[in-house]
Design brief:
Heat Shock Protein 90; alpha+beta; 8 helices; four-stranded antiparallel β-sheet; five-stranded mixed β-sheet; 393 residues
Length: 393
């Protein structure tokens, strides 16, 4: 907009220079010949001369509108006076601004076209340069994403850009150290798991032998049973922590076709006696669902959710189980109020003191969902706990 007004101002000044030149020619002619010059009008410029009684004090330049054949255009006028002998004359030099407007529009169009071409050319050049410049960076980003999925050391190539090359070298070194630490941790976990299984098995075996020998000694039997219970809990805790470690290290390949409805039905059947012993009403709505998952993890997922619902449902309460192609929802009537939503999926979280629970069941459920790309949500509504797993990845 500013460019338009500046250009218009320049063209009007140029038009005024033409009018002043015309005035100067008239004045020079009168001074030389002591008579008025012959008037020659054109389409875009014409002169009107009238007699006046006195000289005008100053020449006046102005713009006036003029209607020509139902069209209005603007006229630039220069009004001045001259004296010939003892007679005064007023000259009005008129010049149309139509040519100026046409020239202004042409200049604007040409300028805008040139600017547009320059911007387009600049965009294409910059796009090409930016694409070539940032290509190594995006290659590095893709490699990092692939590393996050497979945890294999990266070997990024050298690049002509020093900054990218420095980044690649740092990432190569970092991923190599991370991979070594990861392998060392996995090896330690597997070895520790293997070494712990044997002592636990020995403890349980010896306790069983001592129970047989201590027949009739109630005090000894109670102590041995306490040891056996502790060893069983320790074994469960060990297995749960080992499973969590494997889940966090993504050691499971989740590409098996799993019949989730069949697993759910089987796990309900396995727990039917426990459900009946607590007089729990179990309502089910199960559709046929096949997902790409891991058979063992699917069984753990379903088992932990069912165990949680049965364990914390009051006697005479109810459990609702619904399975569709999009969701698995398991709910149970609550003994108390809502659970702590910020801690419910954390390790060793227990809402109530329960010596039989490791506090890892829901943490394992959460890690299984995280590994599979599922989303699990907890809600408390109408004195019921709802666990909703969205099966769409």
């Amino acid at each position: 907009m500013a460019f338009y007004f500046v250009l218009q101002y320049v063209l009007i000044r140029q038009l005024d220079d033409t009018l002043w030149s015309e005035k100067q020619e008239v004045v020079d002619y009168v001074n030389s010949h002591h008579q008025l010059p012959e008037i020659q009008n054109t389409k875009n410029q014409w002169i009107d001369v009238v007699k006046i009684n006195a000289l005008l004090p100053n020449a006046v330049v102005r713009t006036i509108p003029l209607k020509i054949i139902d069209e209005q255009e603007y006229i630039r006028q220069l009004i001045f006076s001259v004296q010939v002998n003892n007679q005064y004359y007023q000259y009005t030099v008129n010049k149309s601004e139509a040519e100026t407007e046409d020239l202004l529009q042409l200049i604007i169009l040409v300028t805008m076209a040139m600017i547009g071409l320059m911007l387009l050319f600049n965009y294409l050049i910059n796009r090409k340069l930016i694409t070539n410049t940032w290509k190594p960076f995006y290659t590095t980003i893709d490699s990092i994403k692939d590393y996050a999925a497979h945890l294999q050391p990266l070997s990024l190539s050298k690049e002509p850009i020093d900054e990218i090359n420095l980044l690649n070298e740092s990432i190569n070194s970092m991923t190599e150290r991370i991979s070594k630490d990861y392998l060392a941790l996995r090896s330690f976990t597997e070895n520790a798991s293997h070494e712990m299984q044997t002592p636990l098995a020995i403890i349980r075996s010896k306790v069983e032998s001592l129970l047989q020998d201590a027949e009739g000694n109630k005090k000894t039997i109670q102590q041995l049973l306490a040891i056996e219970d502790a060893s069983v809990r320790l074994s469960k805790l060990h297995q749960s922590l080992l499973l969590l470690t494997k889940l966090e290290n993504r050691q499971f390949i989740l590409n098996e076709p799993v019949l989730l409805d069949v697993i759910l039905q089987n796990k309900i059947t396995e727990r039917q006696e426990l459900i009946d012993s607590k007089s729990i009403i179990c309502n089910t709505n199960i559709e046929s669902v096949i997902i790409s998952f891991h058979q063992h993890l699917a069984e753990i997922l379903v088992s932990n959710l069912l165990n949680n619902a049965i364990c914390y449902a009051p006697s005479g309460g109810s459990i609702q189980i619904e399975l569709t192609k999009l969701n698995l929802i398991i709910s149970n009537t609550a003994i108390g109020g809502a659970l702590n939503t910020s801690q419910i999926f954390q390790r060793f979280y227990k809402e109530h003191s329960d010596n039989t629970s490791t506090g890892l069941g829901l943490a394992i459920v959460y890690e299984v969902c995280l590994a599979a790309g599922f989303v699990i949500e907890y809600k408390f509504y109408q004195q019921q706990h709802f666990f909703n797993i969205s099966l769409s990845k």
